[in-house]
């Protein structure tokens, strides 16, 4: 998952591409000219046209922005969380459920707690993506709760060789590959 480090707290909601683009650029700490240079433009004129909403960037330019700003393209374009993130979260829950069935324990409550922490974390990250003021300690708390849940299940089955593979899948960031040209 790409990190959306907010260096500047901004309560303004980014309701359209131009607003999200400005927010992402500011959060990255880059000026318009710095971003232009980073993606290979001779000046920032086009950057400012995108930021003002007077123009929309082509797909190739969007890909460059995503990488240069370290931002999720789906969010940048739509304002919504990436389907890949949702799919990754569902995969985490699936692995936890399989682990619970394998060890023959009733971990429904435990998995429910994991899901609650995951949902709360997802909500906070979505608020952060929109530029809302979010307490970083809350994000850290829910990240730790998820990690604690994963470690707990792993500890129960630490002697099983497949647990290491499952843990790697749970802790890996989803990889979103750009479309081939």
Question: Your description of this structure?
Answer:
With 181 residues, the chain is mostly helical. It has two domains: 17-78, Orthogonal Bundle (434 Repressor (Amino-terminal Domain)), CATH 1.10.260; 83-171. 66% of the residues lie in helices and 0% in strands. The protein has nine helices and no strands. The chain has helices at 17-28, 32-39, 45-52, 59-69, 73-78, 83-102, 108-129, 136-156, 161-171. Helix 2 crosses helix 3 (45-52). The longest helix is centred in the middle third of the chain and has 22 residues, at 108-129. The radius of gyration is 19 Å and the shape is elongated. It starts with 16 loop residues before the first helix and ends in a 10-residue tail after the last helix. The model is unreliable at 1-12 and 176-181 (pLDDT under 50).
Topology:
Layout: H1 17-28, H2 32-39, H3 45-52, H4 59-69, H5 73-78, H6 83-102, H7 108-129, H8 136-156, H9 161-171
Helix pairs in contact: 2-3, 6-7, 7-8, 8-9
Find the count of extended strands (DSSP E, 2+ residues).
0
What is the radius of gyration computed over CA atoms, rounded to a whole number of angstroms? 19 Å
In percent terms, what proportion of residues is strand? under 5%
Low-confidence stretches: 1-12, 176-181
- Gross morphology is elongated
Distance between the termini: 23 Å
Mean pLDDT: 77
The topology string of helices and strands comes to HHHHHHHHH
Major sheet size, sense and barrel closure = none
Q: Helix count?
A: 9
Total domain units: 2
SSE-based structural type: mainly alpha
Percentage of residues in helical conformation: 55-70%
């Amino acid at each position: 998952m790409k990190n959306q480090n907010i260096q500047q707290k901004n309560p303004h909601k980014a309701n359209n591409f131009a607003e999200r683009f400005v927010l992402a650029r500011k959060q990255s700490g880059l000026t318009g000219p710095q971003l232009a240079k980073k993606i290979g433009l001779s000046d920032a004129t086009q950057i400012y046209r995108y930021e003002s909403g007077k123009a929309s960037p082509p797909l190739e330019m969007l890909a460059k922005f995503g990488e240069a700003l370290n931002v999720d393209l789906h969010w940048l374009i739509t304002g919504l969380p990436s389907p890949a993130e949702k799919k990754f979260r569902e995969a985490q829950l699936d692995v936890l459920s399989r682990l619970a069935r394998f060890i023959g324990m009733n971990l429904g409550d435990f998995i429910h707690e994991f899901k609650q922490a995951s949902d709360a974390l997802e909500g906070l990250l979505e608020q952060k993506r929109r530029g809302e003021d979010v307490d970083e300690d809350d994000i850290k708390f829910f990240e730790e709760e998820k990690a604690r849940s994963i470690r707990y299940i792993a500890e129960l089955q630490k002697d099983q060789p497949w647990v290491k593979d499952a843990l790697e899948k749970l802790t890996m960031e989803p990889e979103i590959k750009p479309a081939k040209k």
